[in-house]
User: Fold these one by one.
Assistant:
Number 1:
Amino acid sequence: MIRNAQYLRLGVNIDHVATVRNARGGDNPDPLRAAQLAIEAGADGITAHLREDRRHISDTDIERLIEQISLPLNLEMAATTEMQKIALRHKPHAVCLVPEKREERTTEGGLNVVSEEKRLAQFIAPLCTAGCRVSLFIAAQSDQIEAAKRVGAQVIELHSGAYCDAYAEGRHEDYDRELEAIQVMAKFAQELGLEVHAGHGLTYDTVMAIAEIPEVVELNIGHFLIGEAIFNGLKPAIAEMRRRMNAARP
Ligand code: PXP
């Protein structure tokens, strides 16, 4: 069922290296070192989420990543004035806009583009002018995808969290429904001219079905890889994810 599948890029999200560092303060473990190892292990890009509360990645981390990594940086951030200024100062390769709630443990849902169209269009325009590829992290819903196109995003990242949760909890019907939504909406978005990425919650068990979707050209994966790194080391953990992605997308 391969439909014009392109190379599938792996963006490694290094936020949780910073989470471990921040648990103690100080400099270790260093997210920049993790990014360099990820590159050696076959990552195609590095993703980092500068949250408003700076709970993991810091402003200095972003500066060091921009200055010192050889691969594109995908800066995840909320659509706030403060973050826009930071993005315009650093001009990362990509900016992925995500919803942010202070009390959440991780990014829980997708961005509601429909309800904020005008504001997001104004927010995105200067980022595009500065040369950043702007991506919106959204649920696999046609109204959100159409709105993403209208506000000028070049990329959407489909939220795979509900699909991964359904797998982890053994909810088979929900799993099938969520996977189908991502499959159908990836095709729909590509037909509208949007580049399609996916991410959130992906593991060795859940990555292959998503990697098989030909319209998806990038996966952003973090928490599971950093967890695996505790047992197997970061480079082998990433290399195994890359192997599974390649097996699903020959
Ligand atoms: N993509 C986006 C937009 C995210 O916000 C996150 C989490 O920061 C990820 C991908 C990676 O998710 P996970 O850490 O669960 O692999």
Number 2:
Amino acid sequence: MKHLLSLESMSRKDMDVVLQNAAVFKAQRKDAQHQPLAGQTWALIFSKSSTRTRVSFEVGIHELGGRPLFLNANDIQLGRGEPIKDSARVLGRMIHGAVIRTFAQSDVEDFAKFSGIPTINALTDDEHPCQILTDIFTYQEKRGPIQGKVVTFVGDGACNVPISWIFAAAKLGFELRIAAPKAYQPPLALLERAGASHVHSEAQSSGEIIRADFRSSGGKIVITSDLALAASGADLLYTDVWVSMGKESETAQRIQDLSGYQINAALVKLAKPDALVMHCLPAYRGKEIDEETFEAHAETVFDEAENRLHTQKAILNLLVS
Ligand code: CP
Ligand code: NVA
């Protein structure tokens, strides 16, 4: 039984298959489609808001021959406290697969364990694997192999999106730089979990810099509060919201703490001349990115959003193959 619960647990081989097949599904969208989900019903069980993930999975399941069943977690007994393991055992007897957006990573893992059906993490507090697979597909579509390239993440470096980027860098062999204030940097234990062969920290006038190497892939991770250092010579500048879903009560503090960790024209100048700018969306102008830079790179950002559909189809296909 295959699941996509995290990039931490996804093999390099499966990542390569998804990245290759996303291009095939994209190229063949208008042709008669391979329908590996024919006769199947897949539930989307969402405890958090979504535009891109929900629509790309609903359309993707439909285009692969299946029927999507959207379940707002608050409308089913799960939202009234029915345990995840009971909901999983019920749904596992009726449907063929599940796509889950929730808070705790353990809920997605328990659902997979108790339901006995393929389960996809559509975002938890810990990871957003489908998003980062799409981002890498989009980068490679525009610029070729990501291996050896420099990806700079700017903003809340401890949320789901940069954490999935960490596991991707460790497996696919690129350099990921995370520029975030100290309190918004990912925990160092994650570097070990990702398989770092060497981690060291240097004190510099601009603050501490953490560097990790991944000998098996050639990947590197740099964590720093020095935004200019992180952006210098980057191939891809990337950001996400400062206030992730579930953190709304911290909004004022986060805006104060993360102020300045923004992609704008001055930051883009530090990156390579042909650097891409990407955003997982939704975007908050004037916070993690400014209006001019967002609009200057809108074509890339909305190609990235469209590519959620093609990548979800490649993920669904992997799980039923
Ligand atoms: N990027 C992303 O996951 O968007 P949604 O929250 O709209 O699904
Ligand atoms: N880090 C964001 C991603 C949104 C797609 C959140 O969890 O809200």
